[in-house]
Amino acid sequence: MSNQHDSPRPLVTGPDDGPRPPYPLRLDGKVIKGFGRGSSELAIPTANIPLSGLSVGGHEDVESGVYYGWAGLSPSKATHQHPPQTQSFKYSHLSSPLQETLSSIATEGGASEKGAVHMNLSILGFIRPELDYVSKEKLIEDIKTDIEVSGRSLAREPYAKLRRDPYLLEFEGKGDEAT
């Protein structure tokens, strides 16, 4: 694949009235250390869960690519280093109004301090297929667009309310393996 797009990228993806099957796709697993490239080389923080041999939400035919959705992290000291509501947290790849909207949605309800760091994901839509990039700059440009598309897509009310899905915050009995 190449990193060329035939037409302008949409600024929002998915139906306005909310996700349609096969979404939401749900998966969970322990957050593991990656290679550090996301933060150090691209200046874009990432989190990783092991996905080898995984079917996502019972779907083994999920295309490799870029998706958007909500993630729940089990509360621990590691997840409270830079909470979104503090001044020290600024995600420079989102416009300020979108940053404020998503921060408000994400921090609604609070969290307690317990457990290991596990992640529950609710994948709500597809943005684009995985591409093979010829330059780091083109990859960063596309990731910044992906971030904006994700934010705009999740800020719509039918998607925003799914942030409160109880699945995202249920970690009791979760193992280290992604499921």
UniProtKB/TrEMBL annotation:
GO cellular component, one term: mitochondrion
Top-rank taxon: Eukaryota
Annotated stretches, region: Disordered: 1-27
GO biological process: FMN biosynthetic process; riboflavin biosynthetic process
Top-level EC class: transferase
Pathway listed: Cofactor biosynthesis; FMN biosynthesis; FMN from riboflavin (ATP route): step 1/1
Enzyme Commission no: 2.7.1.26
Keywords: ATP-binding, Flavoprotein, FMN, Kinase, Nucleotide-binding, Transferase
Keyword Zinc: no
Protein name as it appears in the record: Riboflavin kinase
Lineage, broadest ranks: Eukaryota, Fungi, Dikarya, Ascomycota, Pezizomycotina
